[in-house]
Amino acid sequence: MDGIVLLKEDHKTVEKLFKQFEKAGDDATAEKRKIADQVIQELTTHTWIEEKIFYPAAREAAPDSKDHVLESIEEHHVVLWMLAELKDLDPSDERFDAKMTVLMENVRHHVEEEEKEWFPDVRKAMGRNRLADLGEQMEAAKKQSPRDPLTVPSANQ
After folding, report:
1. Which residues lie closer than 8 Å to 64 by C-beta, 6 or more apart?
2. What is the pTM for the complete model shown?
3. Which of 31, 42, 92, 135 has its CA 20 to 30 A from that of 61?
């Protein structure tokens, strides 16, 4: 699978989880906890493979993407700290839904920028074969990704 397609699939997976969370209702604390835990794992893995594999390759292939990559890493930093806070927050805490809502807003903004503003340029710069190689590397790296959001490099930058 092509690396950009893989990242977009991850984006779709997370968006589906967000929609489930939004539909869950006020009294569904156990369901919301389960969904939040899935979101935490998906986004931790996703940010890990982007930072370890995709972003360095994007910067190399499309030097003009440098500012987009740097902004994305800063957005990851914010998201990863929110994930770490959600991980330890009781779903009955009054801040849980609010924190999840802000997380969703941040991630949706990030996804829109990536997919609309710079993935097309990176696709053009890399070509089909390079993107296929990256996709394989990222798929393999998913198996080694950390479970703790704060171990992703941008969390501590």
Report:
1. 121
2. 0.95
3. 42
Q: Give the integer Cα–Cα distance in Å for 108 and 130.
A: 27
Whether 89 contacts 95, CB under 8 Å? yes
Distance CA 105, CA 109 (A): 6
Between CA 112 and CA 118 the distance in angstroms is 10
| Per-residue tokens: 81 | 């700290």
Residues 42/47/48/52 CA torsion (nearest 10 deg): 150
Q: Could you read off the pLDDT of 43-96 as tens digits, one per residue?
A: 999 999 999 999 999 999 999 889 999 999 999 999 999 999 999 999 999 999
Q: Provide φ and ψ at 35, rounded to 5°.
A: -65, -45
pLDDT at 26: 79
Degrees, nearest 5: CA angle 69-148-87: 105
Tell me what pLDDT residue 123 has.
95
Closest CA to 107 of 46, 32, 55, 23: 46
